[in-house]
What we know:
The protein has about 290 residues and is mainly α.
Amino acid sequence: MKRSESVKFPNSIQLFKFCQKVLMHQRGNKKVNDQEIGNILEFNPSDCSHWKRGEKSVRSVFSLARLSETLKVEASLIHDLASGAAGLDEAFFEFTESNNVRTTLDKAQDSGEAATTAARQRVEAFVSQLHAQSQFTTAPLYLPEVVRFFPFVQMQPIEMIDRLSRVLRTKPGHYVINYRKGDLKAQTRMSVLKDLARIIFEAERSRFPELGAADEKLVGYEQLIFVASLLAPKTMLLDEMARVDTRRNMISELSALFWIPKSLLTFQLQQAIRQPSTPVTTQATTGRSVEMAG
């Protein structure tokens, strides 16, 4: 009987599967055969098979650069997969979220600069209330500290395979956000807050008049600003950026500190540099706590 052996290069398997998922995604979920992936690195069928089974290491700078360029994926994401710093699901989540951010920003631009600025300021004021109520002063933000202000929403860890989190409506006006059980990854944290944002800005928006009327072109943008501002407030982000050792990778250091995906960190850092936070003077944030009760 043949003795089973451990995989020699498990990270290579994850990298192969990631390439396969990205290509399928880019082709509208059409099937991609193994050799199409191997062709990116000019592998013959044997080398491609060894890569897929984790019998061949794919970690050279040139190979990873070619994968990044061909797949149009951030080089850092490919490197994280190859080194084991990111798993398959987390890496694919980062990939799709990077695309979602671009799509969301493009859609928001159709509403004009004045409308997007007003929406951003409303959401940032709303988030500032949550930070103040939870006494958030040091990163990272722990999700229960915020979710407790929304008594109509509960978080529950369960065994999940197909996604990082999902929303279930248990009864009218009440929801459960299920998330993948186990080590809570940065991507899972973002996924949970995206689900919370959908509940607040879409299903239960009427509870929060300070958010204003819904605008189909801006609701995705509002949710993005909500998640980014909640996890990495601009002022705190800029303060921490000034403290990062210049000899280290700033994006990696800050994403680890705030416990958020690099794609979200990059977005919020750009926002912080281009649009610094302004003093809040709206009625929603002066003299009144945001009432979260149902």
